[in-house]
Amino acid sequence: MTDNKPANSVGSPIILPAKKQLFQTAYETLRSKETPLFECQETTSFPEIEIDLNKYEKIEAFLTQLNHKNGDYKITYEKSKKVEQSFEELKQNLTIVQNKGSVFYANIGESFDKYNELVKEKELVLQYLSVFQNLTVVTKKLNSLNLKFLSRKKEQVESTAEKLFESLDFLEEHTSFKDYENYRFKFKQQLVRLCDTLVKYLTQIFLPNAISDVSSNLAKLNESSNAQSARETLLYNKFAMNCDDFSFFQNIILNSFLKYGSTKFFSKDLRRCMEQTYNSFFEMREKLLKQYIWLQVDAIVLNDKDSSSLMKFIQDNILYFSSLFEKELEVFNKFFNQDFEGKTDILNEWFMSLCEPFYDSCRI
User: Contact at 8 Å (CB) between 198 and 252?
Assistant: First the structure.
């Protein structure tokens, strides 16, 4: 039986072996005939290439050196990485230190502020203590004062007065302090004691010595043409020679009166000290002047007896007493060189008492 399948489907597996056989046969035929094609192929040769071995050795050496350098660079790079890492760690540590420093400075700032506050409190406490310690210091100084040598102790007296003023002013500003009344009374006692001491010196030592010195010199004068001029010099210039010492101590009494005399707590005692001072001055000064005032009034009476004119007598006395008042005012202001309330009235009252010889003469 014949297979009726299409030719292309039956012949396809046979084509390739047939071609192969065809090419094989052709090749053998050409080979057997020794065709030039194959001879050419067999005899073809290529020229030899000369290789420069030294050149490759240099390259190899360069590569070896390059590899070596590369290894060194790797080591350097690793070290640099470690250094960089160390710097990074150092930076972190510095940041930590900086943060701690900021905290430290903040704490120091608070501590410094507290320290300043404590220093101020300490200074304030010491100031307060010094005020109260003044009482002990002042008491010791007053106990050591000697009236006979008081003129040599001006600085000590002035320092004592300043401490008393400071303490009393401080107490007036801090009335809520414990034992305020007790300390105020004690400081007042010491201030009055100081003023009494100064009054005693002025009225029992200074003024009597000044009066005695002038009186002894007046007693030596003879009745002559120059006696009147010498008497004026003694009564005013000689008497006022040491007025600065008097006014120095008197001003302490006056300042005490001006500062605290207006308060009932101090008024009586300080006013008494003031009055004792100027009353003693007037009294002693009047004793020194009275005999010379009488002499002058008597001289005016004798000069005017022939005129039988009361008006002339009064005019002459007014001239004399006006001149006397001016000179006495000048002397008084040297001893009492600060103004105070009632000073003019007190002085005028004393001037009235100096006119008693004139009034008595008018009555006669």
Answer: yes
